[in-house]
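User: Can you predict the 3D structure of Glyoxalase? Sequence below.
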Amino acid sequence: MNDRSISLLKVRPEIKTTQINIEMSDDERFQNETLRPILKMQNPLFIAVFKNYIKKHKNSFYELGLEKRLQYIEHAVQRDVKFRNSLKGVVIGQFTVEEYELYITNSSALNKRMMNMVVKRLKDQLQLFERETLAY
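Assistant: Sure. Here are the predicted structure tokens for Glyoxalase:
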């Protein structure tokens, strides 16, 4: 393992997840050991990136009701290819070389897991996307 890999692993938060066991699929293990800690660490960046996405799309998000806002998040991540690729980059850039080599063996399924986790994370923090008001 090189210095970059060691440094990346050191800064990741530890997450108490379901116990890793031999019956877990490789994808599930990757999700729990790699994706979850990276998503937790990158959460402030995901929030900032989505706020910027809202702004770039003329703040129409703020005119929506609760259910439509949840759909907006899902639609943005699942259907806007440029935005989805940007989110994937936020995660993949935190992989060690060894994790990247595992990732490329089944990137399609792992991308799906990754994006589902990002959608859930954004939806669970919906209150952070309220329109910011200026106090005078």
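Residues 24-127 form one domain. The chain has a mean pLDDT of 93.
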